[in-house]
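Running this now, will post back.
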Amino acid sequence: MQRSASVTLDAPVPSVGTIDPDRWPEGVDTWPPDATWGAWGHGRHAHSYGQLLYAASGACEMQTPVGPLTVDTAHAVWIPRGVEHSARFDAEFCPVVLSAPTRTTGAVRSIPVDPATRARLLACRRDPRSTADALRALVGPSATGADLRPARTPHGPLTAPIAAALAADPAHACTLETWAQRLHVSTVSIRRAFLAETGLPFSQWRTHVRLDAAVARLRAGEPVTAVAHAVGLSHNGLLAACRRHLGLPPSALHPTEGSPR
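Update: finished.
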């Protein structure tokens, strides 16, 4: 496999702590967004979600704040959200990546993989619905953060009308400019109110509300595209939101045969 001569991954990643993904721009899962990527590996970057990396075949050498770690058929590596790392792949490397919407950071660590654990990890690649159980078993309960936490409902005079409209119809399409005209305030005032009352910028809070509604519909067995339309997201927008907040594709939330709806 041809390597990039312009990128050096051999130097250890400085132990600079973590990057707070909640401060990243809306929709950004990996930082920096222009991180160097290639068939040879990945330049230094961090994710807004936790990630367990394993090798179905071959090996990957990672540089992390705790030093170099190897991902191969006998070892997986857990990278908490916001932790910088880089990776160099060998020619036979075939990754198994389990993503988790953890709200904690914790420490990077290597996890031994025995034959039973290997079978479990490979099963996740075939059926993503088993991802959460595998992560809880290998990393611990904090890896998955359980179910999506409901979006905080604001009750202020500028935010409550908007929250009520989205609760009634998650696809409600009024812009902040329209709401500002109705409420006789500026869009800046509304944005500040949402941030103060929910802890999130308005756009992120709205996405969370829409994802809450989408999860309920998906668990009832509704088609992914129909759910995305019903809650005001594009198909790709729903895919990205589920991956970022749940660590799963939308289809993984569909009930399995014989399960209650």
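Confidence is low (pLDDT under 50) at residues 1-17. More later if anyone needs it.
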